[in-house]
Specification:
Blueprint: H1 4-23, H2 30-42, E1 45-46, H3 47-54, H4 58-70, E2 74-77, E3 86-89, H5 91-111, H6 117-137
Antiparallel strand pairs: 1-3, 2-3
């Protein structure tokens, strides 16, 4: 389908900008949110776990985690191997997660206004399939 990527990318940038604005109250960006979201949904995690999930280099995740530590949103906990850093949300991190999650849910609901539930479900199911196809090409 010619033009699909252009349509997707024209949606992506404004969405990320909106999300960044939405989370700016907490000094967060969408890239920092990804780390918080991963830890919240997967429990205490290593930097490698997070970098693998988002297909991002470990040093990039390390910088994000350092920033989240400065904000007291995450903390390191001891692992089996001293070289392995395990990260978990702090109590403040849990509170900020919930506040941002509520704002994001409100945004999701507002941008889906006027779109039938069936169409929303189709889009929700198709996007991971497209992602899988892209990842399998590499």
């Amino acid at each position: 389908m010619e033009g699909f990527f252009q349509r997707y990318l024209s949606l992506y940038r404004p969405l990320i900008t909106t999300l960044n604005e939405l989370m700016s109250t907490y000094e967060l960006s969408y890239s920092l949110w990804q780390v918080i979201f991963y830890i919240k949904n997967n429990g205490p995690s290593t930097l490698v776990d997070i970098s693998n999930q988002y297909n991002v280099e470990k040093p990039t995740i390390t910088r994000r985690v350092h920033r989240l530590e400065e904000l007291k949103i995450v903390k390191q906990i001891p692992g089996k191997d001293r070289r392995e850093k395990i990260i978990q949300l702090t109590e403040l991190g849990e509170e900020i997660f919930q506040a941002c999650r509520n704002k994001i849910t409100d945004l999701e609901n507002s941008v889906m206004e006027g779109i039938a539930k069936e169409e929303q479900n189709v889009a929700f199911q198709i996007l991971p399939k497209i992602q899988n196809n892209i990842m399998n090409r590499e």
